[in-house]
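Quick start: what a row looks like.
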Amino acid sequence: MKTRIILFLVLLLTSFIAAQTDVRMNELKIIGKAELSNGDLIARENRDANGAVCAGLRILSDLDGLKFDSYDKIVKVTSDPGSSLLFLSPGEQVVIVYMTGFAPLKIILADVGVHLKSGMVWQLKLTGTRAGSLSRADDNLFDVVFQLNQDAVYSWYGELAPMPSKGQTAAYKLPKGYYTFHFQKDGYKPEERTINIDKSITETVSLSPDASSASLLKLPGIAVITSEPSGAEIILNGQKLSSSPFQGELQPGNYELELRKVFYQSDISSFSVEQGNTITISRKLNPKFGFISVSSSVADSKVTLDGKFIGNVPVEKYQVESSAHTVVAEAPLYHSVTEGFIIKDGEQKNINAVLKPAFGLLKITSQPENGVDIYIDGVKTGQTPYINNKTASGRYLLRVTKELYRDYEEQIIITDGAETIKNIILDKNFGELTIISEGSEIVLNGRVIGKDKVLQKLNAGKYTISSVRGDKYYEAKQDVYLSIGERKEITLTPKPKIGGLSLFVEPAEAAGADIYIDNEPKGKAPLVMSLLVGDYTVTAKKDNFLDETQRFSIPENERIKLTLTMFTYEGSRLHTANKWATAKWISLAGTAAFGGASYYFNTSADKNNDKYKTTMINSDALDYKKNVNDNKKMSGYFLYAASAALSSALISWIVQTAL
């Protein structure tokens, strides 16, 4: 309590002295918002006077020599260049920051979004602003715009020289404070406005005609303003003028020049312009930037700087303003890395973000069968055996399902870098039914499932099975009740649709004839037999008798009588036809033999004729000539014989066909 009172008196006394002397002190200020530091944790051995584990507050700043205090007393402070870690009681509410030459900064933690908690670390960024005329370079400036009712109105504040408006607008950029502005134009009554500037504002100023007003204009001078680098914004006497380089006429008097450019320290200077003279102002801007390069243990990690995306790693020599910053590297399935740092002018900082996995391995197997469907949080992700090397860490609802087995559910937790292995034993939800019906289609609940013999795994319940074996059999049907784990074997035999046949042959001599039904031997006539319903072909065969064939039908539950009349072979048309067929084949054989002989003798005649033409001996020529004539004659005889045999074969074929 005593500590709090002393701190309060010090702050009160400092404020009172500053108010009485009207001295503007240098100020400490917070940059941006407080952030929870994911990369920092307070070890459990760090405890406050009450035994509670400390909370942490990390102060990042481009200022050296910062000192700290708090209402409940700081446990300890660890400092590195640009960074100080304060170990605080979890219930701490206020921290005071001191630095030589600066007003103390009282930080009410709740007001800046800091909510201390044991073991956790918050992060704040601090910088300082200098008092005096040059403080404008570092302070936030406000836009002050005057809308005028006349063109080329001159305006100014303090002892500075007047500046003409651009058209009917005069635009200033000024730090907060009280200002008295003057507005004047030849032929118009002067106007004056006093304004407390603590935000950007727009004011309307109307000038009234007044012919008696004194002229403000004097012989101007010329100002030439350059900067290194060029392109700096020029603010002259608080008004936005142009960008460097600039040259133009200015009214005689005193001027305050501010040059502003991104990544450079603002430069403030003053000069005076005399009538008819030219003044040249050249200013070199001091850099206010450094560079960072960011690499990561994970390729293509996303990098943000102070909440702004700047690219994927590797980020090389990215230009940043000299100040306190926060860089974040993140990648899917990895924990993000946050690092606060201070960049000083011209500094090159290299940051290597080591991202820790935010995933584990998930492996799922099942018994007694694989191919089980896997659902994670209701989304189907695959079937067993299943493995995913990069499953995001977290809690999930695992459900596995397979037909004929009971569904299985459980909560699983995937942790960073760990293996989660699940071997799931499925509970049966089926019985086994074997259906046997040789030569038949097997039907289950109206659906054909196979032939002859079928094994089915079925859920417990009632089923209708049947066996179908064509139109000549009745369908065999049966209801079956099956329990979980039960094994049943059912044999179905379709009942045939039967009729009868009594078969006789005549004359009596044909008795004992072999009977074939649909080309299958059935016995000897006469016979009596049962047959399935349907259409058949019966044939009776016996030596010395012609085969007798006839079609018949067997109706269900009826017996039909069928008599086959057979004819003897001798004297039958078939017998005669067979004789003529024999004559046909003999004649064809004779035709072939006689034709061959004719061809032979004709070939011999051709050979002897060739020898006759080439011989030089008369006796040989006579012999060859005689042989030619003899062979020609024999060839002719056999040709006539072949023709006669062919004619006989043709006649025999015609007669055979006609019978």
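That is the whole record. Residues 6-24, 131-135 have pLDDT under 50 and may be disordered. Helices lie at 2-21, 573-614, 618-658.
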